[in-house]
Amino acid sequence: xxxxxxxxxxxxxxxxxxxxxxGASAAFFLDSATLLQWLDxxxxxxxxxxxxxxxxTSQYVGYVTGVVDALDGTRFCLAGGxxxxxxxxxxxxxxxxxxxNLPRHxxxxxxxxxAEQYPCKR
Length: 122
What we know:
Blueprint: H1 7-20, H2 32-48, H3 54-71, H4 84-97, H5 106-117
Helix pairs in contact: 1-3, 2-3, 2-5, 3-4, 4-5
């Protein structure tokens, strides 16, 4: 019987499998340039609610959700009641404001955006 991976390792494994299936670079899972491309469709979907924008919108929101699942409580601390859509919107705003200076890795972009909005109290 195969061993089931639980906890943060399972989340990371599932996220890695998802990203590997999206055609992301082999050097790392997803870069910020690709995240910005997904963001274009996310913005278009928010404005027009047309089905043609849903695939990349779902990838974008799913990616943000995966990073939140993996890093919440370590790099940033989301407030209670913050959902996937709100976190995705906050990351989108940050990415638009910093588009020319984003880190190479998309997870760093998501983490930086949420750390700015939701720093952990030490």
